[in-house]
Amino acid sequence: xxxxxxxxxxxxxxVEALWRAVFPEDPPHSHAAVAIPQKLxxxxxxxxxxxxxxxxxxxxxxxxxxxxxxxxKLAVHPKARGCGIARALIRAAEQGLAELGCTKVNLQVRxxxxxAAAFWAHMGYAVEPRISxxxxx
Length: 137
Prior knowledge:
By secondary structure, the protein is of the alpha+beta class. The protein is built from 4 helices and 5 strands, in the order βααβββαβα.
C-alpha cells in the first residue's frame, strides 16, 4: 500500500537517488544535498514522499509565500509510474497548501519537457500567459 508522508531524514539516500534518476540535468543548486536542507528549514511539512514497504517511490515539494503556492520536485520512480503516485502526491501537496490559505498554485516545467507539460495539463494545470524569469544568486 502506498502512503504519502512528510519526509524523514532517514530517507535522504533514496530521495537523492530518485532525483538523480528523474532529474539528471538539474543544476547543482537543485541537488538533494542543497535543496533538502533548504526545504526543511522552511515549511518542512510540505516536503512529501510516497512510500511503499518503507521504500521511497516519489516526492513533491510545495511552498507558500503568503500569496502563491508553488510545486517543485514531483518525481516518481520510473518503475512505479502509472499507479497514481504522482496524482496522490499532488493532491496531498495541494491540500497542505490550501490548509495554509493558499488559493493559487504555480509550477514551472522546462519547455523541452513536453511529457511533463502534458501530464500537468491532465492534472488540471494550464499554461498561463507569463514569462518566467530567474536569477541565480
